[in-house]
Amino acid sequence: MRGKSLRHGLTALLTAAMATTSVATGLVQATADTDGSSRSQPLRAHATARNFLIGTAVATGPLSNEQAYRDTLNREFNTVTAENAMKWDATEPNQGQFNFSGADQIMASAQANGQTVHGHTLVWHNQTPGWVQNLDANAMRTAIRNHINTVVGRYAGRIASWDVVNEVFDDNGGMRNSFWYQRLGESYIADAFRYARAADPNAKLCINDYNVEGINNKSTAMYNLVSRLRGQGVPIDCVGIQGHLSIQYGFPNDLRQNMERFAALGVDVKITELDVRMRMPADSNKLATQATYYRNVIDACLAVPRCNQLTVWGFTDKYSWVPDTFQGEGAALPYTENYAAKPAYQSLHDALAR
């Protein structure tokens, strides 16, 4: 999913809503207690005990500049995803000229804090430099191979899994008419997976998309593609279900059933970019509904043995991509802008702790 520039706060309305509803909505302390009780343990302690990965997208700006961000990140999560630092425009802005400064920063932080890393993303129609988009078919295929060889090869043995291709379907379930598809047809998908497997034989390789939470035309197209390509020997190991949800549109109640059908293909399933937005301002009822959505997602994942990871797309509303993308919406993440844990956080915690 596309990232965003850093925001320095939502609206004053959210701050007021949080101030007046903190007791009613059960906002919990963002710092762990020291009594050793189950309730006081961070998310990652409970997840690790279950052999489960609970993760977040990470932005390099606050990772560098904000202690509260680092403290929460490293206390709560046992896996991380680079929000933008591993995308093509960041790693190879000019042909053959690579920049790994942001990616290396995230890798170093993760290693220092005992976190695994999920790589995001190698081939996407957004945040790809113009020089790639203007290549002819043969040159484009060569560019994909060289890019994947270099990026995946650099982190071979250190990145556990990759989103190899991202958002290859349109909203109706057809193949997205991207510059990749216009030049190469569907073949670029299989090629990308094969290049990634060659660059790191041990990394799990995923296909990732949005609006595939429930059983619908798009998720069925994804299911059929994964089934067909795996039948041809293409090394697809996992399916990423992004999980960008909104409380005003209803919950996909067949999420678990959908994950189970993917798992039956022999692939792992990951919730890769979870957030649950709402119309602003937030209030206690909306936050309670949001918490239910978070609980429903993690419960569905934990009920499917091959669903082994849930990642939220950032953890504090302070740096969420939602307000700049969905006008009038926000408050999508488990922590407020001031790092107070919301009921959504408690939903994740309680599910992992049970």
Automatic annotation (TrEMBL):
Keyword Hydrolase part of the UniProt annotation: yes
Coiled coil feature spans: none
Pfam families for this protein: Glyco_hydro_10
Superkingdom, natural source: Bacteria
PROSITE patterns: GH10_1 (PS00591), GH10_2 (PS51760)
EC number: 3.2.1.8
Residue ranges constituting the GH10 domain according to the UniProt record: 38-351
Reaction(s) this enzyme catalyzes, per UniProt: Endohydrolysis of (1->4)-beta-D-xylosidic linkages in xylans
Keywords noted in UniProt: Carbohydrate metabolism, Glycosidase, Hydrolase, Polysaccharide degradation, Signal, Xylan degradation
Leader peptide range in chain numbering: 1-24
Residues passing through the membrane, by range: none
GO BP: xylan catabolic process
Broad EC category: hydrolase
GO molecular function: endo-1,4-beta-xylanase activity
InterPro entries named among the record's database cross-references: GH, GH10, GH10_AS, GH10_dom
Residue numbers annotated as active site: E273
Keyword Hydrolase: yes
Family from the record: Belongs to the glycosyl hydrolase 10 (cellulase F) family.
Name listed for the protein in its UniProt record: Beta-xylanase
Organism from which the protein derives: Actinophytocola xanthii
